[in-house]
What does this fold into?
Amino acid sequence: MLLRTGACCTGCHRGYPMQLQSASLNPRDSIRKREQGEIRVDGPRGNALQYETVQVVDPGPVLRDMAFSKDHEQLYIMSERQLTRVPVESCGQYRSCGECLGSGDPHCGWCVLHNTCTRKERCERSKEPRRFASEMKQCVRLTVHPNNISVSQYNVLLVLETYNVPELSAGVNCTFEDLSEMDGLVVGNQIQCYSPAAKEVPRIITENGDHHVVQLQLKSKETGMTFASTSFVFYNCSVHNSCLSCVESPYRCHWCKYRHVCTHDPKTCSFQEGRVKLPEDCPQLLRVDKILVPVEVIKPITLKAKNLPQPQSGQRGYECILNIQGSEQRVPALRFNSSSVQCQNTSYSYEGMEINNLPVELTVVWNGHFNIDNPAQNKVHLYKCGAMRESCGLCLKADPDFACGWCQSPGQCTLRQHCPAQESRWLELSGANSKCTNPRITEIIPVTGPREGGTKVTIRGENLGLEFRDIASHVKVAGVECSPLVDGYIPAEQIVCEMGEAKPSQHAGFVEICVAVCRPEFMARSSQLYYFMTLTLSDLKPSRGPMSGGTQVTITGTNLNAGSNVVVMFGKQPCLFHRRSPSYIVCNTTSSDEVLEMKVSVQVDRAKIHQDLVFQYVEDPTIVRIEPEWSIISGNTPIAVWGTHLDLIQNPQIRAKHGGKEHINICEVLNATEMTCQAPALALGPDHQSDLTERPEEFGFILDNVQSLLILNKTNFTYYPNPVFEAFGPSGILELKPGTPIILKGKNLIPPVAGGNVKLNYTVLVGEKPCTVTVSDVQLLCESPNLIGRHKVMARVGGMEYSPGMVYIAPDSPLSLPAIVSIAVAGGLLIIFIVAVLIAYKRKSRESDLTLKRLQMQMDNLESRVALECKEAFAELQTDIHELTSDLDGAGIPFLDYRTYTMRVLFPGIEDHPVLRDLEVPGYRQERVEKGLKLFAQLINNKVFLLSFIRTLESQRSFSMRDRGNVASLIMTVLQSKLEYATDVLKQLLADLIDKNLESKNHPKLLLRRTESVAEKMLTNWFTFLLYKFLKECAGEPLFSLFCAIKQQMEKGPIDAITGEARYSLSEDKLIRQQIDYKTLVLSCVSPDNANSPEVPVKILNCDTITQVKEKILDAIFKNVPCSHRPKAADMDLEWRQGSGARMILQDEDITTKIENDWKRLNTLAHYQVPDGSVVALVSKQVTAYNAVNNSTVSRTSASKYENMIRYTGSPDSLRSRTPMITPDLESGVKMWHLVKNHEHGDQKEGDRGSKMVSEIYLTRLLATKGTLQKFVDDLFETIFSTAHRGSALPLAIKYMFDFLDEQADKHGIHDPHVRHTWKSNCLPLRFWVNMIKNPQFVFDIHKNSITDACLSVVAQTFMDSCSTSEHRLGKDSPSNKLLYAKDIPSYKNWVERYYSDIGKMPAISDQDMNAYLAEQSRMHMNEFNTMSALSEIFSYVGKYSEEILGPLDHDDQCGKQKLAYKLEQVITLMSLDS
It folds into this structure.
């Protein structure tokens, strides 16, 4: 962890960081180490400000020893096991001036016109006023007037006030996001712009509100960057359709009340008095109390309002619109004046008697659709007196404003005018006689209770009084006084009363009430009887439970449902009532502080029931261990749990919480110490990656109320990925014969639990029948049951099930009788014929008979070998693809750093090039040489000189192809820091090359085909610089995967250490064409770094040479270590450690090596008879007596010579150069061999290489290898030929260069699409990508052997064929590498065409954007190469061709004006030895 701090010092301010000079810090500053890997830099007074924390090393302390880099921009930091280089600042992470200057980083400031946070010295012209902000108050501010306009206003002059903006003489653009861009006029600190034209203004529609905010940005013409922005609003008044929303808008909107429109321009209103700007001037309805309208009654509705407009000539009058249950009712209305309107006499109605009061929306409109605003949301309430008021009491309870009353004759709730006055009485609440007669009791609850009283009895009925005093003292239940309670009283509908104590003689009775007075018409009696009961207890279960409570206890007895309120106590602890019946009460225990027995007491109302029942609180359960401590994501795998007191728990559950979501599953208690659970599933989202191991946030048990076990702290419960099965092919149907096992392929079938030997419980059903299952990591083998026909296959494991499809088991079809007879007759005739022929041959010659037998045996052998080889090839193709994919997962990619990568491409084969070193000149010449080179650098940066220089060199006959490439690479290294200039020069050179190509009448398709010019090599180098980021982020991964896949696939089979031939190959030249018997061994290898670390299992072939074994072991142990950081096999010895403690050094050649007929065979593991499972170790090189090499036998074929032979690391340009030569030892004449002997030696035995006819059979292995690697080849091609690269954009360089080639084609009138296609292919795929595919060691830190190189060459050739537009006719004599990919190349060609087409359709990249991108690339890699050394290398060509170069400079007018010849002569003088 690095804490970046800013130390205070005199003269330090933002942008000028306090300098900690050299590796030893300023003596006044101290760097203090912290234990958690943090560093604090303290200034002289120790008052440092921490502004950033950066993780730089793995957790652990940072050591005191630290040092700055030479340029003081990096700090080297060490921990116990790690050395890290940390930049002193990371200003680039801040995206705004406020973030940058608010961060507290003293190194950072804001480079205004470049709109970036950077160090002051990196900001161009930062010393000029206001170009570099180092304090927050210096940040650019921008205001605009006006800051909003209507969408119907165009080309409005906008004045932008700017603060803290530097001088803008280069000009400025105003940009309205993606709407429009125009030049701005700078006037002092103001900038004048115009708003967009009509076609560019955003269209604002109602759904998006009445305005649209865009960013008005100022863009510097000098840098092309936006340096200031502010919000600007386009508003649209016309989206408002009411006066209030219009005038309350924050923008300049006016309401035209006679036109009923909202506008930004009040002049468009019809009349002056029709313009409204204030809300109080809007036509609107005022708030009124409830508007009550009874249904079916004709009645007007009068509404108060203000500012109601008088309809003008031709305009319609007012209407009221009521929306009743979805149907609209329009009623004519009368405007009395501007403040009153009345809906005319009309009756209204609505459906149904379930609603007694229906609020209805009311809208007042005029002229058909001009709404009057209703801000108070006034509604009309339609009501029916008779709805839901079937009794007198309910009727008189209604809202008095409804004026409803009870009409006794028909027995209805009505309005007074609807009750016939003569025939009946009409009761109303406010009347003198307002009491309802005939009360009625419909229900009493409960109907039983204890004699002691206290029971709350609920009495429901009709007409039970309208006030509490009506019934306050007139209620008796079974002859016992029952006191009414105010809280439970509902007028007319319900009485709740509390029972008094009953006498022993009272057993049952009716409920009787009087309403107000006890006259017959005001009295009521229930039809139900109320009974007094005696309650008893008999038992409780369970009788014990945990101290934490939560146990559900059932208490049994009689009459336990009597009364209204139950209280259960266990001693002083309440047991929370849950439910009851006549025979039991169920309650839940609460927690207790101690372990003891508690007496049980039950109280029902005022009755206390006594019985000697006891409940025992015991210690809470504990969990001791669980097994296994893992499951799969879908859960439902069995878990065994051991603990104490588990039998106390009634409903045990297991829980897991992940991502804030909880899953619960069930458990079953076996006894007090054991239970089994089903693992809970893990709650994961649909985007969860299925191959990751997960740990739940919480894992534990729900055991009643026991809180301590909800989260288990001592478990590391792990969830492994769910098993994943593959479907039975695209059709989903698998056809089998009876008895053939069903194979379900998949992954994650066995969880990768440490310790191994764990399996999931799989069930596979074929139809309804289960089958016996055998499980491996990647497949389930199911012995199919005795079935025929079509059946669904279903696999179940844990909480998941999956059907890979259907299986069709075809019945064996027996032959018909005629067929059997025909076969028998044909067989008989055939036998007779064969006997006759044999007799004839026997008579002719016994010798011929013997020859026939010998030929027959040879044919049988041949046929069996062909069959075996084809079968093996097919099996390999099916199994290897999955294994390879799984093997490659998770390996890191060892990318080379930028400098090494570019050096390998620009100067292949040269490890320590001068451009990486400081310039080496004698001290007395150093000053003159450096001065000369600086002058020469100025000339190189002069486009006229550089073009003349390159053209002159190219015109010299002695200027070789190698020189051209060297000069191109040197120029690009010098111009690395000025890529804009380099690109300009490159474009000019390419344009010249195209002109020259077309003038010389060459076919246009030959352009850029070969590297015959400086321009072509410069183009390669240009792409090399600009595509590094793309390689790292995108294309590198599939390229590295392809390399690893080829390497691993080759090493799965034998590889001849001498010839480089292999069993698995894509190249016919490198294929072993005979059967090699070999066996795979797994050796346990002791790590050379740490002998105590676990042994590493390594797969080896018993036919591998000892050096091959060492390399495979190094690959396994140092799997994620770059090649250059690994020990070399040549520096290590392989030690075989045998059981008795004996140790043997194994070598390729020693005194045990076999020599036969001048052929010496390299030692293999089979030679030493090393068994499977042996322990081996890599130790430092040593010599033992047993293994000492006989010098006379192997004088020149020593192990080191052999290792050099197979570890050839020369130039990759020639395949022939990488094939090791097999030369006999000059002194002894002994020839080396490993698996196959060289073709050229005539003493090979028959069968060593097999006959020609047999050897061709092995070509099927090419197909098997191609099939295995197909996915990786496709992935690479698809990544390269796609414009959407796994989330990253197409590199700008590709689009820019393709557009340039299209421009050149247009310029020269070339419209043939094949020519344009070929130019692009020659420019990028064949010039850059083929080089990367053939030479992955240019990009990664890896070692590439000859067989991998041969295979990559085949892939590269396929890549080249895919980019070609010509059709290749293939036949049986075509090369095998073209035949191998013949079917794939057409689809690859389609990818290429689509790729070029997609790039062509993309928007063009402006020179401004490209230059900004190139400047950024230059800045990132500014100091990778030593420019002086590169200039010195280029100058060597000036020395060689000085006269030829000076000639054109003298004669050219432009060169003459700039005195370029004179300047070059100055350089030559300064650089000369005798000066």
Remarks:
- The first strand starts at residue 2 and ends at 6.
